[in-house]
Amino acid sequence: MKHQHFFAGCLAIAATALGIGSTGAQDTIKVGLVMPMTGTVGAAGQEVAAAIKLYMAQHGDTVAGKKIEILLRDDGSVPDNGKRLAQELIVNDHVAILGAGTTPSAMSMAPIATEAKVPTVVMISGTSVVTERSPYYVRTCFTLGQQSGIIADWAIKDGSRKAVSVLSDWAPGAEAGKVFEQHFTAGGGQLLETLKVPLANPDFAPFLQRARDLKPDTLFVFVPAGQAGPFAKQFAERGLDKSGIKLVGPGDIVDDNDLNGTGDSLVGVVTAGFYSAAHPSQLNKDYVAAYAKATGGKRANFISVGGYDGMHLIYEALKKTGGSADADKLLAAMKGMSWESPRGPVSIDPATRDIVQNVYIRKVEKKDGEPWAVEFAAFEAVKDPLHPAAK
Ligand code: PHB
To answer: Fewest CB atoms within 10 Å of the CB: 203, 331, 349, 365?
Structure first.
């Protein structure tokens, strides 16, 4: 521990000596991204990287007189790599700003960002506590809690009373399950069982069989980005799509990146999510078209907007500071910022540094032969319900 503290202290001194984050005098501002480009959640890092590239192609690579240079590092979906890569980006590459990806990696990077005073935009992690781990963390993606309570309330209204949860076994899954259970039982429902599926190489079949044997009226499922496709396949193979059991969840289970390959198996599924490629605003239509063009035809998904908006936040904050990358000035500029995202209106809660956004209820419908998550109700300006400030 002592050794770690000493090292982190050196980081802070090195950063100060180099004038990083303090003078804003350099002509180039380096942004270090630590993303899962490979491994268990490799799809997510690639989606964030594609969206950031798109943002910069649309807005240029210069802001407030400073050239923006992106340094992208692959953490391989391994938590501890996040910490090492963040250290290297700060000490060797002198980045002024960091972008963090998934929960475990963002957690491991937090002490480094704090000690070196590096503003860090969290672009994938959906676990509540992450933003509390560093005063330099600001989140532009989502939390699972934001979506899971809303879908529980909707299910109760829709007549659900006996549910089984099937959750990917890591922090965001635990939070999704916890908030769903709180709302579902408060509404008079009963949670029959919680089934935890391993994060890596999941085989959903035995869990789905067990869930079916429990005879629930509703199945609440969380699988992370990149797993909606395999999940939908096994869901249909078990005949669950025709079983009369209602499938609900946060938006992750109808990830637009996978949805188009799921045929009819998720048609009719209702989720609470903050982003759908079918969101009807003009801004989103343009975003979806531009993302598809830039990626060889891929659908923009909920992960991509965390990166796109993350870059927007960095650009707008730099405009406000007049190009200064001073950490405290950037943080002050980011807090309270609001803008129109492809997902709808969003803001950064100045008290928690977390994203405040609309959560939509959506039903999977086929349009022109393709399944889309079509929004039919909206809850406005939803905050993370698990943050201590929400209580
Ligand atoms: C997370 O890192 O917390 C995370 C990643 C992918 C998801 C949801 C949450 O789909």
So the answer is: 203
The answer to pTM > 0.85 is yes
Strand ranges, E, within the chain: 28-35, 62-63, 66-74, 97-100, 120-122, 137-139, 162-168, 190-197, 218-222, 246-250, 270-273, 338-341, 344-348, 355-367, 370-382
pLDDT tens digit sequence for 80-127: 999 999 999 999 999 999 999 999 999 999 999 999 999 999 999 999
Atom of ligand 1 nearest to the CA of 105: 2
What pLDDT score was predicted for residue 7?
47
User: Mean pLDDT, to the nearest integer, of 191-195?
Assistant: 98
- pLDDT surpasses 60 at 24: no
Which residue's alpha carbon is nearest to atom 7 within ligand 1? 224
- Please state whether beta strands 28-35 and 270-273 pair in parallel, antiparallel, or not at all (unpaired): unpaired
Distance 223 CA to ligand 1 centre (A): 9
125 C-alpha to center of ligand 1: Å? 5
Residue 156 C-alpha to ligand 1 middle, in angstroms? 25
Please report the atom of ligand 1 found closest to the CA of residue 103.
2
For residue 352, what are its two tokens?
């928690």
Q: For residues 316 and 202, give the distance between their C-alpha atoms in angstroms, rounded to a whole number.
A: 40
Q: Residue 176 C-alpha to ligand 1 middle, in angstroms?
A: 11
- Spell out which residues line ligand 1, taking CB within 6 angstroms: 41, 44, 102-103, 124-127, 172, 224-225, 252
Dihedral sign (CA 262, 268, 271, 273): positive
What per-residue string of b and e applies to 39-66 under the rule 16 or more CB within 10 Å gives b?
bbbbbbbbbbbbbbbbbbeeeeeebbeb
Distance CA 29, CA 140 (A): 20
What number does the ligand 1 atom closest to the CA of 252 have? 10
Structure-token pair, residue 284:
């989103």
From the alpha carbon of 101, which atom of ligand 1 is closest?
Answer: 2
